[in-house]
């Protein structure tokens, strides 16, 4: 009688081990399905969390320096985010590096498209992925952002401070206590493979995949495009009108502002370095790079020559000259804007 009980106990124990192995396999399939559908580790985004996040402000520019972690191990990487926020009519340049930043090596980096916020703030961001070489205390040195106003040759600077990151070793402090253990011996595989549980697990995983894929197909992504070059130019022209320089008879200042707006629009729209060139240099390059008809090229030439006379030769424009200058700039922007096609997503 005792032998029968022992046999039943052994059989029950084997079935329990097989059931437990099947449960492990089902869990593995579920985890693999979730990871393949996007449940794995996501890359750090600009809007992610940073343990070190500092802002440095000077005048119209805010320089942000953020580090994902302030303490890591030798096997980890950190994310360094550099970001500038400038008010309209100011341009800032982020610092650049080679293949390393002091003690850190640069694994990868990404520069994001400029973002226009609140109709008068431009956000420029760049993200670096850094890796350490040895354990110890790493210092990210102060970085300098150079900025200037549109049409202004005077350069200004805003500087960050030193950031310290601790890199810890994976080895214990007392290395004499390290012990190399022997490898484990061979393990006996189960004699019976639980096919029914495996089939149930596969069906369950396929069901989860079908539900996830169905939800992903129904989900619509909303993409907010960056404003086009002509939209920015027309917005700047409207702001110039709101300042009421012409009503105050500040005709010279008004004409210079319109000239800067048109030069900036030509740079953004046709990829010509209009703000940094003289009128003569720009007209030579525009002969081949400005993709407009001869009539518009002649209009631009007369416009820029007139603005140079006001800016450099102290020519005093009249109210009619100011109105004609503004209309010429606005008409050129509208005539050369890029027409966008409206695309509709299929249901």
CATH fold field value of the domain at 52-170: Immunoglobulin-like
Would you list the SSEs in sequence order as H and E?
HEEEEEEEEEEEEEHHHHHH
Cα separation of the termini: 71 Å
The CATH architecture of the domain at 52-170 would be Sandwich
Low-confidence stretches: 1-6, 33-45, 341-347
* CATH class annotation of the domain at 52-170: Mainly Beta
Strand content: 15-25%
* Alpha plus pi helix count: 7
Q: Averaged pLDDT, please?
A: 77
Largest sheet: 7 strands, antiparallel
Tell the overall outline.
Answer: elongated
Helix/strand-derived class? alpha+beta
Computed Rg: 33 Å
What does this protein structure show overall?
The protein has 347 residues and is an alpha+beta fold. Among the domains are: 52-170, Sandwich (Immunoglobulin-like), CATH 2.60.40; 229-336. It has seven helices and 13 strands. Strands 1, 2, 4, 6, 7, 8 and 9 form a seven-stranded antiparallel sheet that branches. Strand 1 (52-58) and strand 2 form a beta hairpin. The longest helix is centred in the N-terminal third of the chain and has 38 residues, at 2-39. The radius of gyration is 33 Å and the shape is elongated. The N and C termini lie far apart (71 Å). Mean pLDDT is 77; it is low at 1-6, 33-45 and 341-347.
A few lines on this structure:
The chain is an alpha+beta fold and 347 residues long. Helices cover 41% and strands 22% of the residues. Among the domains are: 52-170, Immunoglobulin-like, CATH 2.60.40; 229-336.
Task: Spell out the blueprint of helices and strands.
Blueprint (H helix, E strand, L loop, with lengths): L1 H38 L12 E7 L2 E7 L3 E3 L4 E10 L2 E4 L6 E2 L2 E8 L3 E3 L3 E11 L4 E5 L3 E6 L6 E4 L3 E6 L26 H24 L10 H14 L8 H20 L8 H11 L4 H19 L6 H18 L11
Parallel strand pairs: 3-13
Antiparallel strand pairs: 1-2, 2-4, 4-9, 5-11, 6-7, 7-9, 8-9, 10-13, 11-12
Helix pairs in contact: 1-2, 3-4, 3-7, 4-6, 4-7, 5-6, 6-7
């Amino acid at each position: 009688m005792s032998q029968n009980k022992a046999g039943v106990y052994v059989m029950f124990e084997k079935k329990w081990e097989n059931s437990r192995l099947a449960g492990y396999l089902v869990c593995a399939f579920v985890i693999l399905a979730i990871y393949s559908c996007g449940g794995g580790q996501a890359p750090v985004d600009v809007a992610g969390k940073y343990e070190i996040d500092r802002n440095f402000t000077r005048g119209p520019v805010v320089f942000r320096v953020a580090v994902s972690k302030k303490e890591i191990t030798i096997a980890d990487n950190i994310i360094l985010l550099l970001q500038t926020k400038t008010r309209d009519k100011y341009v800032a340049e982020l610092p650049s590096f080679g293949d390393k930043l002091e003690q850190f090596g640069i694994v990868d980096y990404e520069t994001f498209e400029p973002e226009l916020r609140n109709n008068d703030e431009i956000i420029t961001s760049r993200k670096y992925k850094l890796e350490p070489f040895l354990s110890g205390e790493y210092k990210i040195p102060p970085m300098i952002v150079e900025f200037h106003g549109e049409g202004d040759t005077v350069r200004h600077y805003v500087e960050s401070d030193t950031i310290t990151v601790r890199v810890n070793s994976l080895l214990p402090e007392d290395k004499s206590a390290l012990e190399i253990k022997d490898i484990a011996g061979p393990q006996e595989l189960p004699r019976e493979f639980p096919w029914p549980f495996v089939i149930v697990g596969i069906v369950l995983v396929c069901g989860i995949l079908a539900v996830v894929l169905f939800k992903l197909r129904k989900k619509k992504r909303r993409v907010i495009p960056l404003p086009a070059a002509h939209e920015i130019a027309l917005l700047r022209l409207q702001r110039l009108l709101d300042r009421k320089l012409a009503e105050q008879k500040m005709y010279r200042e008004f004409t210079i502002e319109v000239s800067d707006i048109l030069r900036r629009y030509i740079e953004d729209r046709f990829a010509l370095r209009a703000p940094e060139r003289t009128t003569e240099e720009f007209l030579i390059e525009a002969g081949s790079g400005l993709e407009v008809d001869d009539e518009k090229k002649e209009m631009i030439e007369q416009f820029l020559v007139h603005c140079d006379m006001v800016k450099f030769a102290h020519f005093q424009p009249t109210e009619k000259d100011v109105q004609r200058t503004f209309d010429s700039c606005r008409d050129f922007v509208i005539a050369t804007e890029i027409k966008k096609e409206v695309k509709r997503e299929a249901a």
